Amino acid sequence: MSGATLRARAAPALAILIGSSVWGLAWFPYRVLAQWGVAAVPAQACTATIALLLLSLVYRRSLGTLRWSWLLAGVAFAGGITNVAFVWGTTHGHVMRVLLLFYLTPVWTALFANWLLGERVGLRGAGLIALALGGAGLMLWSPELGWPVPNNPGEWAGMIAGAAFALNNVLLRRVSLELPDVKPEMRSWTLYLGCLVGGLLVLPFDGGIASGGAALSALTSNPATAAVAVALGCTIAFSNVIVQFGLARVPANQAALIMLFEIVVAAISSWWLASEGLGTREIAGGLCIVAAGILSGILPESKRCKSTTAGDAMV
Predict the structure, then answer these.
(1) I want to staple 166 with a disulfide (CB 3.0 to 4.6 A). Which of 70, 105, 205, 251 is the partner?
(2) Residues in domain EamA (predicted)?
């Protein structure tokens, strides 16, 4: 394999890896905003608004490529559920436990990809999924917390976000195949439109008007709070554009495995910033997750699913 071909295959995976790293750290600024008076759902709606405005400004010439499609409506719907549930869950729940339930996504992805894309996991893919999920279980299980099943609203939010996230990734993959004229940045624009609408719809369940008013007051009266919200909104907007580049070129099952790297980033950041433990078992589990993601990208596969392009490889 030539160096140019290797770089071409590595770039999409690296793009997804960068996006996963951003979301592995995003829980912390959302918690900071919550401490400063901006609750989880208003904070999510605020950063989604900032991301939407930024993308509209920077990529205004691409707005004309948008058109009505049930696929894009599905991206908005699934993206809104993902972001609202993820932000609420990681703000109110145990970060690592919420993320474990969130990153049951390879299971959901396998189902959605088979249904919507015709991608078959195969024996090797099933082995890599087992390695990744085994690593996640090894990394996050503890006698004190018990098995990774939802025990509180934050954990249920994490699991719901994971299922919606898998659906969103599969739909984005299908959009790239069936609507190639829609620019990648407009897929991100559609996603954040869904995040904004989803945040507004869920706001009554997170304090309603009082919570929204308190968030608005905190953002307008404290420059530091506003700066964190703006910086977070800009970061997630551009990281999502980068991820779209990767998702358009990587089969959904492989992308789901690469995204498991978020757990590793979250484990380190939650240990460092929230004093959540990280021991030998957690490190070993993280290495299993990283190994599964790397192997999914470099091991050859003789069969290709019907949804892949010439440059894609099956998990």
Answers:
(1) 105
(2) 13-140, 154-295
